[in-house]
Design a protein that fits this description.
alpha+beta; five-stranded mixed beta sheet; four-stranded antiparallel beta sheet; 6 helices; globular
């Protein structure tokens, strides 16, 4: 017998043996995961978050002593923990379903390999299987196939039951929630309560306190902003200063101070510049925080370690990094508090920007492990409320708007656009309309919310009807966020196309293709749209149904951040420098 034939026979038997072993392991793995899923499902059904005996006990105590604020806070904390445990269980079931599918796929592959190698005739000279051996192999294949079918059926059944539980949770009526929680102040307002509008105060709207300005809606106060500048020649550049560490966060401005953050994956810093002169007033490290990882997580080069834009309330500033480190400084550079929210599990790096509402710091923390929203007390950093979310990881930032009788915190991630009461975390509405890796943030104008993601959809949501009134599939951005007026909606895509839609109908008025793509978000300043491409060239266009270019202004270096517009000046962060543009 030749060595070649001996090797062929040995390889066939070896392959079948390994495939059988892997099939058995895959089947056992699937059975174990299904058992764990069933156990988790049973526990969730037995411990609905709104049926907590401990919560009910605290509610009764609070009814007896409604003035006891410490008891009220304890109740809110317990309720939060119960809900968090519930949603964590649902997340475990969802992950378990994916694991089972992977195990079933491996099982089927192994069965196919066994079938092929046991059906093919043996090579000449190799050991021929006896009839008994062949019968045993056939029984084994059928047994494994039957086990695979049972595993698949069990997985589908458990997943269906888990989804039913989730739908039951989401479908709970507002009245039922109010009956359980309103008595102890968990909800501060219902759908009809008129709430003071603090989002349009003169102090707030005359500054640029967070990503895309007041409320995160990219609407600048009207002013005499330049139509042309040149970062290389110095035309209309009032000052320019190098930023010590890199970052893709955009500048925020309050009175005579401009704030940025930077990180190289080793060092994390916050910077305060004088708005009038560009002088670096102070530079502070963000370190020594309990729970901070010894090494920064891997971040995509387009995101980096300091992508989220900071936020300010005019007294303190807040910065968050890819490590999950969150720090608060006063305007003199003194660190007030710092905490780690847990390293976000995100394959591009964390980039959702911060937002302040009244005395609350709002944090969108949609990662792949435990997506949630936070509201922290601005003076202490303590959690006021925390809301788990059943969404995929996202890189978008929150939008905060006043819709006529209440404030709404609007966020988007696959698969939903959703609105929350920023004071309590109460979900006001959600609409399933998104897919993919969501980067653009929502936009709002005249009762309409616009959410978009590349290779997915542009959806226009009427807040009164709480429904999608039109959709579009062209010109969709992957990073740049839309900006809207009562009449128009503008998108700037990563492949260089800017599109103007009718905000009410979705009809396209015009499209314009540029040489460079866009990561920076367009900003509305009066009747003009300012859009900066990745080469650092800002295109200034009339906000109109006809395309009318007013100018193009090069920064002199690449840029992907969104400019800040304050008091007739434009603050732009380039790849290396911070620029102040003005007449």
């Amino acid at each position: 017998m030749s060595p070649k034939r001996m090797t062929s026979g040995w390889s066939r038997e070896k392959t079948v043996h390994l495939a059988r072993g892997a099939a058995v392991v895959a089947a056992v793995f699937c059975v174990i995961v299904c058992a764990l899923m069933i156990t988790t499902y049973t526990r969730l059904r037995a411990s609905h978050p709104l049926d907590s005996t401990l919560v009910d006990t605290y509610v009764e105590k609070l009814r007896e002593t409604p003035e006891d604020e410490s008891l009220r806070r304890e109740l809110q904390a317990i309720d939060l923990l119960v809900r968090k445990a519930f949603f964590t269980g649902l997340w475990q079931i969802r992950v378990g379903s994916y694991l089972v599918l992977g195990g079933v796929a491996l099982l089927l592959i192994c069965l196919k390999i066994i079938s092929i190698y046991t059906k093919e005739p043996a090579a000449p000279g190799s050991t021929v299987q006896s009839p008994d051996h062949q019968k045993t192999s056939l029984i084994t294949r059928r047994f494994l196939l039957a086990g695979g079918v049972l595993v698949i059926a069990a997985s589908v059944a458990v997943s269906f039951l888990a989804r039913s539980t989730l739908e039951e949770m989401v479908a709970l009526s507002e009245q039922e929630q109010a009956d359980d929680l309103e008595d102890y102040g968990y909800f501060w307002a219902d759908d009809t309560e008129i709430v003071d509008n603090i989002l349009e105060s003169q102090e707030l709207t005359s500054n640029w306190p967070n990503f895309r300005g007041p409320g995160g809606n990219a609407h600048a106060q009207p002013g005499d902003y330049p139509l042309s500048w040149n970062g290389s020649s110095g035309e209309h550049v009032l000052w320019k200063i190098e930023v010590p560490l890199p970052g893709f966060n955009s500048p925020i401005v309050w009175d005579n101070r401009v704030f940025l953050s930077g990180s190289d994956g080793i060092n994390q810093e916050v910077y305060c510049f004088e708005a009038e002169s560009g002088l670096l007033l102070w530079q502070r490290p963000v370190d020594g925080i309990p729970g901070s990882p010894a090494e920064a997580p891997v971040a995509n080069e387009d995101t980096g370690y300091a992508a989220p834009t900071m936020a300010t309330d005019g007294t303190r500033v807040y910065a968050i990094f890819a490590t999950g480190d969150l720090a608060c400084f006063d305007f003199e550079g003194n660190r007030v508090w710092a905490r780690n929210l847990g390293v976000p599990e995100n394959h591009y790096g964390h980039s959702s920007s911060l937002m302040v509402y009244d005395t609350l710091l709002l944090v969108q923390y949609d990662d792949a492990r435990e997506p949630r929203l936070f509201a922290l007390e601005t003076t202490t950093g303590e959690t006021v409320w925390e809301e788990p979310r059943l969404v995929a990881a996202s890189w978008s930032s929150p939008l905060l708007v006043y819709t006529g009788n209440r404030p709404e915190l609007i966020v988007n991630a696959t698969p939903v656009a959703a609105s929350y009461d920023p004071r309590t975390g109460r979900k006001l509405w959600q609409i399933e309309c998104l897919m993919g890796e969501v980067g653009p943030s929502p936009a709002y104008a005249d009762g309409m919310v616009f959410v978009v993601n590349a290779f997915a959809i542009l959806a226009a949501i009427d807040l009164e009807a709480r429904d999608i009134v039109w959709e579009a599939y062209d010109g969709l951005p992957d990073a740049s966020s839309p900006v809207a007026t009562e009449q128009y909606l503008f998108l700037a895509a990563g492949y260089g196309v800017v599109t103007c839609f009718d905000a009410k109908t979705g009809d396209i008025y015009w499209e314009k293709e540029f040489e460079e793509g866009f990561y920076s978000s367009p900003v509305l300043a009066g009747d003009r749209i300012y859009i900066m491409d990745r080469a650092g060239v800002t295109h200034i266009i009339m906000a109109d149904r006809e395309y009318n270019a007013l100018g193009e202004s090069p920064l002199g270096e690449p840029a992907t951040c969104t400019p800040a517009f304050v008091q007739n000046r434009i603050y732009i962060r380039g790849e290396k420098h911070l620029f102040c543009i003005g007449k």
